[in-house]
Known about the structure:
This protein is mostly helical.
Amino acid sequence: MMIDLSLVNNQEFNVFLLLLPIFGRDFLMFGFSGVVFI
């Protein structure tokens, strides 16, 4: 799984960080996968 943070919109990443504590690590894995494939 390759993650390039330079491709992540700053605003979207901020929202992701806000949602992260709610969903936990499962969402972390899913979230990064979503960033890669979207």
